[in-house]
Specification:
Blueprint (H helix, E strand, L loop, with lengths): L9 H17 L4 H4 L4 E2 L2 E3 L8 E8 L2 H7 L6 E6 L4 E6 L2 E6 L5 E5 L8 E5 L10 E8 L3 E10 L12 E12 L5 E6 L5 E5 L4 E6 L10 E5 L21 E7 L4 E6 L4 E5 L8 E6 L2 H8 L14 E6 L8 E7 L4 E5 L3 H4 L18 E6 L16 H5 L3 E7 L2 E7 L4 E9 L1 H10 L7 E9 L2 E7 L21 E6 L2 E7 L2 H9 L6 H11 L1 H13 L1 H5 L4 H13 L5 E6 L5 H7 L4 E3 L6 E7 L2 H18 L2 E6 L7 E4 L3 H19 L23 H37 L2 H4 L5 H7 L2 E2 H6 L1 H20 L5 H10 L6 H18 L3 H17 L6 H13 L3 H15 L4 H7 L8 H22 L6 H5 L6 H13 L3 H4 L7 H6 L5 H13 L3 H13 L7 H23 L10 H33 L3 H6 L7 H9 L5 H11 L4 H17 L6 H15 L8 H14 L8 H8 L4 H16 L6 H21 ...
Parallel strand pairs: 1-23, 2-27
Antiparallel strand pairs: 3-30, 4-5, 5-6, 6-7, 8-9, 9-10, 10-11, 12-13, 13-14, 14-15, 16-17, 17-18, 18-19, 20-21, 21-22, 22-23, 24-25, 25-26, 26-27, 28-29, 29-30, 31-33, 32-33, 34-35, 34-36, 37-38
Helix pairs in contact: 1-14, 1-16, 8-9, 8-10, 9-10, 10-12, 10-14, 14-15, 14-16, 15-16, 20-22, 22-23, 22-24, 23-25, 24-25, 24-27, 25-27, 26-27, 27-29, 32-33, 33-34, 34-35, 35-37, 35-38, 37-38, 38-39, 39-40, 39-41, 40-42, 41-42, 41-43, 42-44, 43-44, 44-45, 44-46, 45-46
Length: 1294
Amino acid sequence: METTTNSDTPLLKAAELIEEKQQVDGKFPVISELLHASSSGEYEVAIPAEWQVVTKQRLIPLPDALFEQYDLLECRCFMGLFPEIRRAWITVDHRLFLWNYEDESDFYSFEDQEQIIVSVAMVKPRPGVFVDSIKHVLVVATPLEVFLLGVGYNIGRLGGARGDGGEVTLYATQISVPADGVAMTSVVGTSDGRVFMSGNDGGLYEFVYQSEDGWLTKKARKVCLTSTITSYFIPTFLAHKREIPAISMVTDDERKLLYVLLQDASIKVYWLGTQGTEFILAHHHRTISNSAALLCPQFNEGTDATPFEIASMHVITSRESRTLSFVAITSGGCRLYFSTVKRMQRFYENSTLPTLPVREPDVFEVVHVRLPPDSQPSLGGGLLQSRAMRQMLNVHTAFYRNGSTIMAHTWNEDHDSIIGTAPGCAQILARIARQPRASLVELSSVERIEGRTWAIAEIGLSEDNYELNDLVTVSSTPTRTFAVLTNAGVTILEKQRPVDMFRALIAQPTLRDAQLQEFITTYGLDETCAMCYTILCTEEFSQQMVSIQVLNAARRILFEYGGVPHFAETSAFGANAGRAAAQTGNINTSSADSGVSVAERVLLSGRHNGLVIYLSRALQPIWMKHTITAQVDNVSSPRLHVGISTSDLVDVQERLRRLQHFINNNQRFVPDQINQMPVQPANSNRSAADATSCWQVEAASLGALYDLIIYSVEAISFLCLLADFNLPTISSNMPVGQLKTLSGIEFNQLVSGERGRLACKELILVLINSQLKQHMSIDSLSDVLSKRCSSMFSAADVSLYKALESLKLAGECEEGAETNDLAAEALNLLTDIAGTLSIVQLREICKSFETLGQFGAVVTLSLACAAQSDPNNEAMAFWNDNAPENDSREIVYRKRLDCYKCIIDMLDKRKDTALNVKNLTSLPNTDGLFQFALYDWLLENDKSSLLFHMHGPFVEQYLIIEPRSVEKTDMLWHYYIHCEQFGKASFVQRELACSRDYNIDLSRRIEYLSLSISNAKIAVDMVRGGQMRMTEFSEEEEINELGTILRENEDQLEIAQVQLEIQQQLRSIDDTHANALDRRLFTVTELYDKFAEPLRLWDAMLLIFKASNHEDSQMVEEIWRVILRTVLDDTQRTGLMAVASKVANLGSRLYPSAAAFPLQLIAGILVELSQERPNEYIVGFVGDTLVQARVLHWAVFEVLNKLYMKNAAGPQSNSTVAEFLAKEVASLTISWMESNQSGSIRDIVDSPNLVDDGMPVMDLDSALSQYIINATLNNNIDLKNELQRAQERLRRVF
């Protein structure tokens, strides 16, 4: 047995040891795997009486009255056994006696008919014919009729124990059929009530009966199954062929077959159909002896010297083998194994394959010959090869079941030899260890009994629950007992298991060490120690009144011969490396001497390994069974049931308690330094520290096994308690989800797995709730749980249930003060154990508090549960790490969220009645995860305004952390405004405006920029006034930082407005491009290259030139000409008036940008356009247009004057344009003075040359004088007069 150190808990490791051993036991080969060759005959005959396979326990002589009847020579007498009712039957002529051999002298006599009885049989009744108390029917055959007797059998007061055979009553049924002179030599029945009979005329008959006569059928009739239709019309004396009579018959209820042995030693196989209602001859094997001889050359039966006869036939159950179905035992003691499946299917006998279907047999052939053992132990064992030896056997009666064979061999006229054989488990396991495929090795023994054997039967067996491996059945099944009926009485035989042999061995007055060592060598130290535990701890041996000598010997052998843990050293490159690795633990070091890796592992003692073996077999009946199952009874909804019967649970528990008692009373069981025993071979170089390590490893493993025993005992007590409290009733209203969670848990999971632990707590809570619903105190239940299940029912559980009871009492109180006191008491109890509560429990308790109006208790308990469930705050670390996938911390994170949900659910119910700032701010604010869960809930329920009033340390963090959203970021700057942190609000608003992650339209981005500018200005003012500090930097540094942000925001706002202008222009022509401008803020370069220039958005191009202050006079001139020309040529517009409107519109947005609104260029274009459309021109058009574009009068005068001077003289002079410009200046002068009539234009400013809006009056007057002179020279009287009027008006004012 090996032990390993890993991350598993010791209890889980102990459970793994149990499962590993059970898996090893389950791999023992079935009988067909051991009989893989065509023949075999290897036996080991034990000479010592203690090692005999079958031992004679006692002889129960025939009562004198019966013996006298049997001894009458003139009487016809037959005998047999009915093991179903623990009776032997004897017929003497017409009388039938049922002898209770358990009571020795008690017998029942039936003499109600006068015909000689030729055969009797016990069969199962047909369903629905007899009352329920009749479980068996006795078939009695005479030459004249065959009739049925109902058998009533009541197990005695001792439950069928030895000496108590129960009571038998025979009932006349009035059901019979005529025999027509045919003697029914053999009668058998099937499990569904069919009765078959073989007559001495060679026919096979069926006794068909029913409860009443039918319209066309009688109540009982005899049907000949082997006759043809023509046989009914041919007289018997004319029939040429007579069928060979049958000797005996057996039925195979599993495979629906009937085997019939004929007098010529042939066997017929009848197929009864899938439903058991047919009768079809499937096979007739006539050459059985020849087939056996071909398979085994040593088989010599069937010759003239030794005629071939079959003594008995026996069915092999599918549990024993699915490919071998039948065994026939010959008079020479050979066993012939038959199969009804094809050869290829027999090669795949494996427990993982599905069960073979019930169908008509494909074949019926001999597949293996098992030669007999020696009938004389003194001659030695082994394969019989001498013809003289083989002729010594004369078997006339035999028995076979579950691998065990008992044959009655004629010793002399007055005695028989009973030869018993059974698989040698230790020998087979030893061969399996040496080679992958082992052959059958059997142990045999011989017992001489008095009288001639009539029948052999196994008694006390209700079902075929024995394993082929006798080592496994030590703790789960009793000793197999057989009854051998002779004319001298009934001899009781017992099949000795290895543990029985061991008990007999150590019961000797003087136990020789050589005998003990031989036994240990044969069965192994581990199995021997397991047998010691069996003797010391099993009730079966206690009932057998085991002597103190045997108990002391078993205890002494366990401790003195049980071995010690030690190191096994095997080179990693040695021949035994694999075997050592499979048997040892995992302590690894390296060899310093040779440099070769050496695997050093602890080999545990036989005492430890024997405990594992015994414990695994003791737990095997329930280990893998479902403890709780969900079943639908007579009600529509499923309910929980205990999945293991109480009798099985109690049986296992008793064995475990005896084992626990033994360990408690033997302090040497767990090793310590007091055990002065060597821990390694004498030639080992191991140190004392190594020895201590070995003992520590074994002690740890033994401690874990002991804990497993304790938990198993308590788990069984708990399951029995659930059964006592009627689990189906108390689980009737359980939610379906909880039913699924609690059902399907195997016993091993219940005692060692976390799921089982949680299920136990849930079930305990179910019990408590059922008590509380019935208004019953839980003190008594708590006491029972504490006594029976102390490890499952902890101090925390006690506090929990006391708190539940306090809550129950609080709900029943009428006074508020008392209710509050009880609720406070419950809360105090629950707060201390909050970490042990499951989420389901927490929810139920919180509901109870809510019902009582204790809303604060819900908050306190839920937060306590969250905190105690995560003492290291792993959930917060998991959250801070952005919740990585497949992280172990996620479990505790989810648990804490479930705890918070109890509070959130309560708030959700009260959000419309009692949710306000005061209530929210009173909630604890030290748990960050809870605060985040609360904030999430506020946002989901449109209660974000309440968040601004919660000044805890987590509000800002919650709004900052991922996942970010527009809503949370928008709330963040509102929160900053609420806290008067305008600088931070400005940063957040700028972030929103410039973000590419959020779906924000352009107008909102511009709004955010505007707000950011406003809040930055407020922040600057507050920093200067000492009212706010954003960082740890100085006041000047903070102002500079805010100033930088302010300038960047203003520049970005200007560009954003250009972007908005472009978007508005695109709305009417291209929605795709327009929508693209909502996604983010673009740079001026991106706006020009991606939108304005490709899409010929001329206005936008000018705005971009202004925003970027980029000067490109040629491009700008081209743009302006295109814009104004397009407007002028548009027939839908009003010519020069439309041009003036366009220039005014653009000027209001572009002026005074020289890059985008070059004044001289625009004035020149307006002059050109005016001359092109003289009919539309009005004097003053150019000047007025520029003034409407928000250009100051003085600037308009300067640009017009420059144009005049350019056209009045020089190489590019144009008198017509000069006169046009002179008129424009005159008109501008008049309009300027008129626009200032209401103002204080006469208030001369400090500079004598400037007035009002900066108009250079002296320059204007000088320019007018020059224009007048030129007009005079050009003889343009009208222009001259107009200029003089303007100058005169100017001079009157100034």
